[in-house]
Write a structure and sequence with these properties.
Strand content: 15-25%
Helix content: 40-55%
Radius of gyration: 44 Å
Bound molecules: adenosine-5'-diphosphate
Strand order of the largest sheet: 2-1-5-4-3
Structural class: alpha+beta
Length: 514
C-alpha cells in the first residue's frame, strides 16, 4: 500500500472513530447507537463481518454476520475466560478455530468491560487471513471501551427509570393526595388524587410554581413551612383532609423540598358526627323519664308511711337516679362542647362567681360530711360580677368539687377558692386526696381519660368531667389545668380573663359586697 493510501486510511479510521464517539454522546438509547457503532467499525476495519454480542441482544453487519452469530455463546465464554482473542489466520490456530464455522479465516474479538464487569463482546471477522495492525487493535479497544460505558450508563438509566415508574405508579394509585415541591417551590410531583382533591384540570403541572397551581392558602402555608400541621382542610367538594407535611432531603445543593400528604378523613368525620348525634339524641330522650322517676321516687314518702327498709330502698333508687342523671348530663354537655360537632353557644349573663362557689360548698356539704371531709370556701372579697355562662361554669366547678370529694380519702379536706390574679379570675379546688402522677396529668383533660389506679377502681366515673371543665374555660377564652403531687393532693384551676366579652358593660361591672 502506498504511503498516501495508508495516510488516507488512517484519516478515514480517525473520522469513523470520531463519528462513533459523537454518536455515543448524542444517542438516547442503545437501539439507536449500537447498529451505527457496528457498521462504522466494519467500515473502519474493512472487515467482512462485525458483531456486537450483549447479554440479551446482538447486533451484526457484513457477510460474515451469520457465521459469527453461530459462535455467540462459545465466543462469549471464551472471551470471559481468556480476554481478547486475536487470530490472524484461524487455520494456524487450532485452539480457537473450533469456536467458528463457515468461511471465517481471521478474527479479533475484545470484551466490553465497564466497572470490572463484562457487558459483551465486539468481534471483527475476515474471509481471508488478515494480519492485524496496531491501529486495528487500538480502534477496536477504544470502540469496545466506549460502547461498554454507554451500555453501563443505559443500564443505570434504565434502573432509575424503572424505579421512577414504580414510584409514579404507586403514587398514581394512592388514594391520598400527595404533593411534592422542590427548594424553589416548584412542583415536582402531584398525583391524580391531589389533582382531584384540588380541582386541578391542567394536564401536567410539574415544574410550575406551587403558588400558581394551588389556590388553597392553608396548604400553601403548610408547604412553605409557614404553618403547623394541626389543622384540617376542607376542599370545595366538601371533603375533609388531615394534612401531613415533611421535608424531603436531596443531595443537590440547597435541594430541600417538602412533601404534603392529605389524608381523607371525610368518612371519619361523618361517622363521628353521626355517633355524636346518636349519643346526644339517646341521652336527651333518657333525661325526661329520669326526671319524673326522680320526682315520683322522692314523693313516695309523702303518699304514705314507709318502714325503714322501704325508706332505705327509696334512698337507693333516688341515689341511682341522681347518678344516672349526672352521667347523662355529662354526656350531653360533652357533646354540646365538642370542638368539631358541638353546637353549643355560650349563654352569657351576669354571673356572681363568689355566690356560685359558696352554693357548691353547701350543695356538697352532705357528701363531704359522709367522708368526714372538711369542705370550705376561700373567696376573696370584692370579686366582680362577670358576663359568663353561669349554668356551664357551675357545672364545670361542680365537676371539680365532686371529683375532689370522690378522690379524697376519708378525713381529708377540700377548699374551693376564688380570687383575682394578674387580671384574671382564678377559681380553684384544692384537695388532700390521692394526687395524680406527672405522666397522668398530661392527657387528663381529654375525653374519656381516667387514671388507672387501684384506689380509683371502686369510684364511678366515665372521664368526661375534666373535658367539660377545660372546654368551658376555653370557651370563655380561659384555660383549666392541674397541679398535683401523688399521695399529697391536687389543685384544679379554672382561669377566666377579666376582659373583652367576659366583662359586663361598665355600669353593670360593680363590686360585689361579700
Ligand atoms: P371521671 O371522674 O368521671 O372519671 P373526670 O374527667 O372528672 O372523669 O376525671 C378524669 C380522671 O382524673 C378521673 O378518672 C381521676 O382518675 C382523675 N381525677 C380527677 N379529679 C381528681 C382529683 N381531685 N384527685 C385525683 N384524681 C383525680
Amino acid at each position: 500500500m502506498s504511503e498516501l493510501t495508508i495516510r488516507d486510511q488512517h484519516e478515514e479510521t480517525q473520522k469513523l472513530l470520531l463519528e462513533i464517539t459523537q454518536r455515543i454522546a448524542s444517542s438516547t438509547g442503545l437501539e439507536d447507537m449500537l447498529p451505527v457503532i457496528v457498521e462504522s467499525s466494519r467500515r473502519a476495519l474493512r472487515a467482512d463481518g462485525v458483531r456486537l454480542i450483549l447479554k440479551a441482544d446482538a447486533y451484526g453487519s457484513g457477510a460474515l454476520n451469520d457465521d459469527l452469530a453461530k459462535a455467540d455463546r462459545a465466543l462469549s465464554e471464551w472471551i470471559s475466560k481468556h480476554g481478547t482473542l486475536e487470530a490472524a489466520d484461524l487455520a494456524a490456530n487450532a485452539e480457537v478455530k473450533t469456536l467458528f464455522s463457515g468461511s471465517l479465516k481471521a478474527v479479533m474479538a475484545v470484551p466490553l468491560i465497564a466497572q470490572g464487569v463484562q457487558q459483551g463482546v465486539l468481534t471483527a471477522a475476515y474471509q481471508a487471513a488478515h494480519p492485524f495492525s496496531p491501529d486495528d487493535r487500538t480502534f477496536l479497544a477504544i470502540v469496545a471501551a466506549q460502547a461498554a460505558v454507554a451500555i453501563q450508563n443505559d443500564l443505570a438509566f434504565d434502573t432509575v427509570r424503572q424505579s421512577q415508574q414504580q414510584l409514579a405508579a404507586i403514587l398514581a394509585s394512592t388514594a391520598d393526595p400527595v404533593i411534592v415541591i422542590d427548594a424553589h417551590e416548584s412542583i415536582l410531583l402531584l398525583n391524580p388524587a391531589a389533582e382531584q382533591a384540588l380541582g386541578i384540570v391542567a394536564a401536567n403541572v410539574s415544574g410550575h410554581p406551587v403558588g400558581s397551581v394551588i389556590q388553597a392558602e392553608p396548604l400553601l402555608q403548610l408547604l412553605r413551612g409557614e404553618a403547623v400541621e394541626t389543622m384540617e382542610w376542607q376542599n370545595e367538594a366538601g371533603q375533609t383532609f388531615a394534612p401531613r407535611v415533611s421535608d424531603v432531603q436531596s443531595d443537590e445543593p440547597g435541594g430541600r423540598g417538602r412533601v404534603l400528604i392529605l389524608r381523607d378523613i371525610t368518612r371519619y368525620k361523618t361517622l363521628h358526627a353521626n355517633q355524636n348525634e346518636f349519643v346526644s339524641n339517646v341521652s336527651h330522650d333518657l333525661r325526661s323519664p329520669l326526671t319524673y322517676m326522680q320526682g315520683y321516687a322522692t314523693m313516695l314518702p309523702m303518699v304514705g308511711d314507709l318502714n325503714q327498709k322501704q325508706k332505705d330502698h327509696v334512698d337507693k333508687i333516688v341515689t341511682g337516679i341522681a347518678q344516672m342523671t349526672d352521667l347523662i348530663d355529662k354526656i350531653l354537655d360533652a357533646g354540646r362542647l365538642d370542638p368539631e360537632t358541638g353546637y353549643y353557644e355560650l349563654n352569657r349573663e351576669p354571673c356572681d362567681v363568689s355566690k356560685m362557689a359558696l352554693d357548691l360548698v353547701s350543695v356538697h356539704s352532705q357528701a363531704a360530711e359522709k367522708k368526714n371531709i372538711n369542705l370550705t370556701a376561700d373567696i376573696d372579697p370584692g370579686l366582680p360580677i362577670l358576663n359568663l355562662d353561669d349554668v356551664m361554669l357551675r357545672r364545670a366547678l361542680n365537676n371539680l368539687v365532686d371529683n375532689a370529694i370522690k378522690y379524697t380519702p376519708d378525713n381529708g379536706s377540700v377548699t374551693v377558692a376564688a380570687k383575682v390574679q394578674n387580671g384574671d379570675l382564678v377559681l380553684s379546688v384544692r384537695d388532700t386526696g390521692l394526687g395524680i402522677s406527672d405522666e397522668n396529668q398530661k392527657r387528663l383533660f381529654e375525653r374519656f381519660r381516667r387514671v388507672r389506679r387501684r384506689e380509683h377502681q371502686r369510684i364511678k366515673g366515665i372521664g368526661l368531667g375534666l373535658f367539660i371543665v377545660k372546654s368551658v374555660a376555653q370557651r370563655h377564652n380561659g384555660d383549666a389545668w392541674v397541679e398535683s403531687k401523688e399521695n399529697v393532693g391536687s389543685t384544679f384551676f379554672i382561669r377566666l380573663p377579666m376582659e373583652g366579652v367576659n366583662l359586663l358593660g361598665a355600669e353593670a361591672n360593680r363590686i360585689n359586697p361579700v
